[in-house]
Structures are given as C-alpha cells and as structure tokens.
Amino acid sequence: MTALVLFLVLSCASGHTLEIPDYNTSIQVTAGNRTGVFLDGGRNFLGQNSVVDRFEQFLLADGKTQFYKDLSMTIKLRGFIDNVFDVQGGNHWSADPKAIHALSNSFALKYDDVLREAYFDYNLGQLPDEDGKLFARIGKQQVVWGKADGFRLLDLINPFDYREPFYPNFEDVRIPLWMINVNYTLPRQVLQNASLQLIGDPFYQQDTFAPPLVSPWSFRGFDEFQHTANTVGFRVLPNLYDRDFEPATTLKNWSAGARWSHTIQNFSYTVNYFYGWTSLPHAKPEFVPVSPLDPLGFLYNVSPDRVHKIGGSFDYNAYKIPLLNIENVVFRGEFLGTINNQFYGNVQPNLVANYKRNTADYVLGIDKYVYGIPFLAPETNTQTLVSGQILQDFIPGSNPQKEGLTNPGDAELNAVKTSLTLFLQNTSMEQRLTSECLFFYSDAGEWWFRPRAIYDVSDNITAELGGQFFIGHSNDLVGEFARKGMQEIFIQLKYQIL
Questions:
Q1: Which of 173, 216, 248, 420 could serve as a FRET partner for 94 with CA atoms 20 to 30 Å apart?
Q2: Which tens digit of pLDDT belongs to each residue from 243-267?
Q3: Pick from 296, 290, 331: nearest CA to 313
Q4: What is the biggest distance separating any 2 CA atoms in the chain, rounded to whole angstroms?
Q5: Which has the closest alpha carbon to 389: 413, 427, 424?
Q6: Strand runs labelled E in 130-230
Q7: What is the pTM of this model?
Q8: 432 and 440 in contact (C-beta within 8 Å)?
C-alpha cells in the first residue's frame, strides 16, 4: 500500500499521466503537515514537560472505481510520520529512552495501518418499487449513527483513538473496522421513507489511549493505575492503552447492531440496538504463583466484557414557530441506555476494581442557521450555524461516591451529571472561510473551548488554525488537562496533489 501511495505522488510530481483502467475511476491525493504547540509546557504524570505536541507529515489517498452500475470499490490510504521527537531536542517529556520507546510505539499501532478504509458498495437501487431497495457495504469502514456536537453518544460502532482526546474531526479518530453493513429500504406502498440497517463485525478493537505516565495526553486514571503497578510491583498485561486479550474470532464473539430509521414529513426518528464489547480497557486481577515476575502472587489482565446498548434519536424541522416568527429551527435528540456499563472504582478485597452498572444518557439540541449579520448587515453573504445542547448522564440505582466510581480521568462520578454546549460555525468569503468555536461547560465547574478556522487558500491548498483551552479543578477530567498545561494551538496545511 505504501508503494501505491508513493507511485501516485511521484507520478504527479514528475508530470506523468496516470494510466487508469477503463472503469470509471477517480483518485485524490493530499499531502499536509499538522503542528501543535503547548502554550504552558504540557506536562506528563512524571512532571516532564514539552513545547511541541506534534509535528506530523501526512499523505492521504482516496480512490473509487465504479465497476458496474451497482458495484463500486473505495480505498482510502493514510500514512504519516510524526517528527515531534526530532524537533523537541533534549528538553521534553520523551527524554527517557523508555518513554521514547513507548511514545514511538503509540504513533505506530496496528490501527494506524496505511489501509485506512477499503470496501465494496453494492446498490440494488433499481429493484421494482414493490421490492424496496437494498444497499450493502462490505469491508473496512466507519459507521456513524450519532451526530451530537463534540461528543459521541450514539456514535458507538467504531472505537476511537484518544491519543489526542479532544481532536476536532471525529472522522479522523474513528478506528475503521472490517464489517458487513446492509441497509434495506422498505417499498413505498408498505411504508414510505423507512429503512432497516444491519451491521456485523467479526473482529474486536478497543478504544486506544496515550501511553500512561509518559504522554501528557494520558488520562490520570490510567497514569495512577500504571504508577501503582510500577511502585507496588505487579504486571498489567498486555498494557493499558492499546492492547488487551481479544475475544476469539468466532461467530458467538461477533458484534452486531440494528437501526430502524423512519421519516414522516419534517420529523425523523431512529431506534438503535448494538450488542458488542466494552471499548474501555478493564484490568482484572488474576492470582498466579509467586515468581520474580510476580512477587506479589497476582497480576492484572486487560480484557473486554459484553455490553448491550439501546438507543434512539429524533430530528424535527420546525418550518415556522408560531408567535415567535422564527423559521427553520431543528430540534434534535439522542438517547442511550447501556446494560452492564463498566467503571473503575474502589479496590475490593478480591482486588477487583471495576464495577458493572446500568447507565442512561441523553442529549437534546437545537440548531438554527442565521443568514447575514442580524440588525447590522442582513444582506451580507454569510451564514452562521448556532447550535446548543444539554447532555445528562445517569447511573440509576447506584451510589457512585460510596463505590468510588470514576471516569478515565479519575474524576469522581455523581449519580447525575449535566453538561451544556454551544457550537457556532460561520461560513463567509463565498464559502472559502469557515470559522467555528465549541464551548463546553459541566456542573463540575469544567470549561473547554475549541476555536478553529479553515480557509481555502486556493483550489488545492487549505490552511487551518485552531486551539483548545481548558479550565477546571485539577480533580476533574477537563481540569486535569488545565493543570498539566495542555492549552494548545495548532496549524494544519493541506495540499491536494491530485
């Protein structure tokens, strides 16, 4: 795959014409750089600091071939090299050779395969009306169910890459999986605008995280667990951030999901079910014979557990709100119930520190596009999306404080948590400039701001400037990043070669 990418780039750079087969084929190749800089010397758990977060060179290649009217193939390649260790010099958090090894490995994990996505699309859309329509996508892909601003609630099919946990583009940090994805649209005479989606995934992949202790982006819960393991003297196998003991690839270990979608005029809804595995690492104690490797007679194995997720969503486009004279406002919501959700908590006498609890979460949002600049210049050729959300997380029938339940950031959980977000996105300069900012606040006193501007310099060059800023108590998830000096600005340049 790497050879294919290099061939595309060299062919373009040398002015040679690509010999494309007789199929309807399109290829796009983009190169770029992403550089992130900490404003307050991002510090890891050991107190070592850094200035440069990343200095990443990347190459993207997307290709699609239409074999027949109903059959196509898509391949997306992504390769990158992060030279952060080369530009840091000696004064940074990777000065320890062991830290360099752990961090280097964290930028070359198995889900960073050059083959980002690869799938076949088979569209039987020309069936007679009485038979409905059938669409199938088979291969390595992303499946997106939820669309909450800045957070994943129903976006639960693909695991996430949390090595930089507040990355603005979810598409870039979802970990594609090999899946079967089938969508059947019912015949119109049976039910209009209704469809059923079924997905199946034979392979397991957990969420991935920055290596504990050595990376400033590591969550404190992982840092403290790994620090305790190193200090007390017990092993954690395989590790806490990118490896676990995976379930065998058998039919009974598949993950599977179903989604019913239906639109009635300006109202649409979905009902979702997913039976899969927990994606958060769970370290479970195992008693073993005392040995030089295990002087305490126990170790912790990291493995997933089965979980049921039941949810739904709705969208309602209010063409006009009576009395207020406001038009085209979208009200939306997502709901999710999880059976046997997993949390870390107080260590019990049998050394078990993870708890299974049922949870319920929801997000309600309201979206409105504003054209021009109200009151000042309403005719200006610009538009702004204003989107507000309220999110609440519930752990019913539980006493999180007594059990010491925490999130990955080691922040103590309450039976109910409430968060608010505001998302503003403006498009101007004939849609060449997109400016946006996401504001987050929770009842724990946490604040998080993520401004970003994307400018199309030309048809081939795109520049992006952004940042993220944290405020909060050091015992909270967001406040922990503020304490570690993780305020950051970043710049990204992309050049479309082909």
A1: 173
A2: 777 887 888 899 999 999 999 999 9
A3: 331
A4: 77
A5: 424
A6: 133-141, 161-162, 177-185, 194-201, 208-209
A7: 0.86
A8: no
